Amino acid sequence: MTVTLSSSLKGASAQMLGALGGILKKGADHAAAHKLPEDVLLTFRLFPDMFPLTRQVQIATDQVTRGAARLAGMDLPSFPDVETSFAQLIERTNKANAYVQGASSEAMDKR
After folding, report:
1. Number of alpha carbons in the 13 Å side-chain half-sphere of residue 29
2. pLDDT tens-digit profile of 51-83?
3. Cβ(93)–Cβ(20) under 8 Å?
4. Contact 2/101 with Cβ under 8 angstroms?
5. Is the alpha carbon torsion for 2, 61, 52, 25 positive or negative?
6. What is the distance between the alpha carbons of residues 71 and 11, in angstroms, rounded to a whole number?
7. Fewer Cβ atoms within 10 Å of its own Cβ: the N or the C terminal residue of the chain?
């Protein structure tokens, strides 16, 4: 059985974006359980030179969708960086996964 580039990318992306969505869901649940404003967690940095969580999620989704677009020879997708809640970030991970899964496997595998 031959492992194709598209199956590797789509499988890894689905796993990574699914896990990221799950982590964000746990963050939302934690904020709700402890009555914390979501922005406390979404703007948190483990170290001063890190991007806040919101920006890290945006970068991760941009990387995977733009990589898929380049491999499939498609125009780069544009996801505006406007998320301010866990729900919006989870939706972004779902949109990114849908984009990657919908990219042409045939076009990717020609590379």
Report:
1. 6
2. 999 999 999 999 999 999 999 999 999 999 999
3. yes
4. no
5. negative
6. 15
7. N
